[in-house]
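Please think about what follows:
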Amino acid sequence: MENLDFSLYKLLVQEVREARKARRQLANLFVTLNLAGASALGFLVNGADHLPPALATWLIIALVLTCWVWRTSNAYYTQMLAIKYEIIYEREKALGVDALQREWKKLSQHGLFKWFALERLMPVLFIIGYVIFLIYLITPEDVANAQAAFDTALARAGSFIEPVHPDKGP
């Protein structure tokens, strides 16, 4: 039975290793996507007299959504790994060893360091950068033009809709 417990323990440790590897690969993908997106924005701004505000806004919305997915993925992996470690700690207790627990306890995981972990902070930093870029890029005139275009679109949409008169029916 002890050999079976140790085999299960080894399997669980391997699963954690694989999950951590997948988490790193996913983080690398999101960093690459965001750097490419930020570079594309810079290229578009540098190559044109004026980047159309609508295009810039849509690109930034897409990049912010990418960061949101990144942040959500981080939270999922954090939760999944916490559960896996909890199960591993139970197996360690049954085996009479606590190698991973001792290692984890010796790491500094408290206070500001935990809150400012790079994997949590990176998506937020990118979002802040995109919002600042958008604020810098869009002028008050662009906002007024967008409002006028929106009002015109609403007026046109209203002209296609026939009012229903209560006394005439549909």
